[in-house]
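Quick illustration, no need to memorize.
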Amino acid sequence: MQMKQLISSIACFLFISAFCNAQKKELSYEQIFGEAPTNISRPLPDIIRWIDDEHYLERREENRKASFLSVDAKTGNAVPYESPATKIGGREDIPTDAKNAAHSPDGKWVAYTRANNLFAKELSTGKETQFTHDGSDDICNGYAAWVYYEEMFGRNYQAFWWSPDSRHIAFIRFDETQVPVYPIYNSDGKHGSLEKCHYPQAGDRNPAVKLGIVSVGNPEIVWADFDEKDDQYFGPPLWLPDGSALWAQWIPRNQQELKIFSVNISNGSKKQVYEEKQHTWVNAKYDIRFLEKNIQYIIKSDQSGWDHFYLYNMDGTLANQITSGDFGVMNIVQIDEKNKIIYFLAGKENALRTDFYKIGFDGKEMTRLSFGDYSHDVVLLSPNAKYFITTYSNTFTPPKMALADTKGKLIRELGNSKGKEFDDYDLARTEIYKVKTSDGLFDLPVKITYPLHFDPNKKYPVFIEVYGGPGLGTFNDHWSDDLREQWWAKEGMIQMTMDYRSSGHFGKAGMNYIYRQMGKYEIEDFMDCARWLPKQSFVDTTKVCFTGYSFGGFMTCMALTHGADVFTHGIAYYPVTDWSLYDSYYTERFIGTPQNNPDGYKMNSPMYYAKNYKGLLRIVHGNMDDNAHMQNSMQFINKLEELDKHFEMMIYSGVRHGRSHWPDDKKKLSHNEDYKFFYDHLLNKPMPDIFWK
């Protein structure tokens, strides 16, 4: 929606709804921030899985007692359901100092790491096998080095993988002897203490890595045929479904290619089965689907500029590209090998939404199965693909759950989250519109939530929250249940969020723009989105506040320096302020190394633009942040001090990265300090005392 249309629609909405809204209630503090019931929403059914093609399993709770029901998909008739109990060894089978315990698929063994060595125990006999013996502070076997934990294994320290037949374990050995140690100061106690973590910053030496395979009960290690002295990464390995071979993902330091090798589990020899090269970067693969009898596999790749599915033969030759076009596919829900059909999620109709589709292996007859102008979350498809269950919503419609068949027919509604008092409350109006970038290449999505009782003749402050990282947009077109938005609408703030060319909405093609200059296009896109503000009579352009966390903290620092003519206030949480201070794998993928791209590092840092800083920035950091180290904030504030710039700083003692993981008392204080910032600098009125109770 263009801005003229937007203003027109707002005026029309105000005219039509003025009388109706006068009789509606407003949510109270206790309903928004406390535990008082609102009755504007209710839970959707808790559906666990399909039992067969005609029945699904639903969990229901009454008087804090749970029961499980088998529900007839077509009629909704439900009867009690009991499944055979399965027992897998519990914690009592594992040494108290063990970490990352994982049971074998057949439940007969448990593997774990202890003192950075890999072990397995046979549960029936209690016999323990130790596979490695060189574990130390510098060498980790099956226990992920920090950069792998954070960037490649989904914040999981487990670096070993059971074979499907429970006969073998693959693991990675990390030698961090040459990786710099970063000290993290703990101020507790009289003298304090230091934590030492091997943390490779951009351009530093990485861990030396080896991929090993062991057989249960046999301490002999088979090492895959790679040279640990190479500057390389291993993505998560994958076992063939029958456990006959291990597939290893190999990525060189520059991350511009990916090779997958089939590793012989008996002697470690390897054979290449996949290769991908790009002029920017190639991501590790996390969802390779092997077809029956290990004849072919399906892989997702963004090599065309968008994520699409490809069908490959097991020797690495391409059979055909399955999906194509200017849209991105997401995850596969199910594969029907008999009929050669894939069921999957994608953003074809609208990049801000998710829809459910099917397509043949040959790439023909792609069909949308979901319905309406909604974003769908389909994770439950019946075993023979007769029915699917979807939870769907959009910005203006609370979530519903429905059962549909794969011929496109809606069978019945299973639940509606809209509560009985939803229509009794005056809720803030939200709009989504598009802004064209100054280079004319992209239409960027922007969401605005307007104040309650909006008056276009008044001037309102603006609060903008973003993330900004590659492939991780801030919003999609689905319902928001964050009631805090309603509080700030009551208090008279315009709330905005916006996305950017590298957000993922524009595929890998959009992300490629940031290569070797991460930060430039992101902040300029945000500035383009915000430049309509001075043109609106109802916006107070002296109060435009930008905030974000981690990468969003970096963006906030950029907003108050590079974008200081647009943004006037900001709260930056645990920001990266110089990419040479962040970890190797993440940073170098997008911007290269400080050695081969010094200008890219210099020109994409708020340090470089600090001379332009004006307005008011608050920097917030935990002193024990082990991800975006507090070093970032300290070096940035030192630069501001040298330039005689006024700013605010809030340090939280003993906490690490990510406010959601902070202790409740510090989390509450942090939120309240944010709110006080809004009241003091944007709303210009006292913060209600109830926040501090």
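The longest helix spans residues 3-22.
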